[in-house]
Design goal:
By secondary structure, this protein is mainly alpha-helical. It has two domains: 111 residues, no CATH class; 44 residues, no CATH class. It has eight helices and no strands. Helix 3 runs antiparallel to helix 4. The radius of gyration is 20 Å and the shape is elongated. InterPro entries: BTB/POZ_dom, SKP1/BTB/POZ_sf.
Length: 166
C-alpha cells in the first residue's frame, strides 16, 4: 500500500517531471518542460531546479541570438522567446535571465510583442520599465544622430537609424 498525497491543482505529469528533475540526469530540459516545472520549482522553493532552468534559458537565448540552427527559427519566434524569458525572469526572480532578456528586447518594436501572452501577463511595473527604457534609448540615439537644430531628427530617422525600428 503506497500512501497517496493529493496535490490539488497540480497535473500528475508536471509534478512527476518536477520530481525527476530533482534527481540529476533523470531528464533533459526542454522549453516545454521548463514551462511545466519552473512554476513548481518556484512554489516549492527548489533553487537548484530554478537555477538549471535559468541556465538552460540563458543558453537558448545565446543560440537564438547567434542564429544557430535549429534554435533560431524566425525573428518573431525569437522575440516571443525573449518575452517569455523576460516574464520568467520577472515572476521567478531569475535576475540574470531578467537582465539579459530585458536588454535583448529593447531594439524590438512594441508591436512585435504587445499581444504576446507572456507580455500581457507581465506586471505593469515591468511593462513600464521596458517601455520607458526603450523610449529613452530611442530618444538618445535619435538625439546623437540628429541633423540641424531640431530637437528630434526628421523623417530621416528611419533612414539613419533603422536598427531602432526592428
Amino acid at each position: 500500500n503506497t500512501p497517496e498525497l493529493e496535490l490539488p491543482g497540480k497535473k500528475y505529469s508536471s509534478f512527476e517531471l518536477f520530481l525527476r528533475c530533482i534527481f540529476p540526469r533523470e531528464y533533459t530540459l526542454t522549453e516545454a518542460r521548463i514551462d511545466e516545472i519552473l512554476p513548481l520549482a518556484d512554489e516549492y522553493d527548489v533553487k537548484s531546479i530554478r537555477h538549471k532552468c535559468e541556465s538552460w534559458l540563458l543558453t537558448e537565448l545565446e543560440f537564438k541570438e547567434a542564429k544557430v540552427h535549429p534554435h533560431h527559427v524566425s525573428v518573431d519566434n525569437d522575440v516571443a522567446f525573449l518575452i517569455k524569458c523576460f516574464y520568467y525572469g520577472s515572476i521567478y526572480c531569475l535576475e540574470e535571465l531578467y537582465k539579459k532578456s530585458f536588454d535583448s528586447i529593447l531594439p524590438y518594436k512594441l508591436e512585435r510583442y504587445v499581444e504576446n501572452t507572456h507580455y500581457l501577463m507581465l506586471p505593469e511595473k515591468n511593462k513600464r520599465e521596458l517601455t520607458e527604457t526603450r523610449l529613452l534609448k530611442i530618444e538618445n540615439d535619435v538625439k546623437t544622430r540628429r541633423y540641424g537644430d531640431s530637437i528630434f531628427a526628421s523623417h530621416d530617422t528611419y533612414r539613419y537609424a533603422p536598427d531602432l525600428f526592428k
